[in-house]
């Protein structure tokens, strides 16, 4: 039987599938016909992105195992650097999400 701590862990396979799903989900806006013009270099770009996303997910997995308090990036930055930089981290993350979504809409409308 597993303990409560094991019930809250995310394994390597689910993390890999989540990262792959996020990367492929953004690829819907970049149609293969547009990527075909770049040749095989697009595959290298995907590989670099996958490696970076997996590294980031491993960092968050390790941080959450060290500090299980809720809040994600905000909680980690607040604990290390104080409430002001914790807040700034949260604001910048929010802005990055909005800018990324707008960029995907612009790319989708340009196709």
Automatic annotation (TrEMBL):
The chain crosses the membrane at residues 12-31, 43-61, 91-110. Keywords: Cell membrane, Membrane, Transmembrane, Transmembrane helix. Signal peptide: none annotated. It is found in: Cell membrane. It comes from the Bacteria. GO terms for molecular function: transmembrane transporter activity. Its main location: membrane. One of its GO terms (cellular component) is plasma membrane. It holds the Pfam family AA_permease_2. It is a multi-pass membrane protein. This is Arginine/agmatine antiporter. It comes from Salmonella enterica subsp. arizonae. The lineage of its organism: Bacteria, Pseudomonadati, Pseudomonadota, Gammaproteobacteria, Enterobacterales. The gene is adiC_1.
């Amino acid at each position: 039987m597993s303990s409560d701590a094991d019930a809250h862990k995310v394994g390597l396979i689910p993390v890999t599938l989540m990262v792959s799903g996020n990367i492929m989900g953004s690829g819907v806006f970049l149609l293969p016909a547009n990527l075909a013009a770049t040749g095989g270099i697009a595959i290298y770009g995907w590989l670099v992105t996958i490696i970076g996303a997996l590294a980031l997910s491993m960092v968050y997995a390790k941080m959450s195992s060290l500090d299980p308090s809720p809040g994600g990036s905000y909680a980690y930055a607040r604990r290390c650097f104080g409430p002001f930089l914790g807040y700034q981290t949260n604001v910048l993350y929010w802005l990055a999400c909005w800018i990324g979504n707008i960029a995907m809409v612009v790319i989708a409308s340009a196709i």
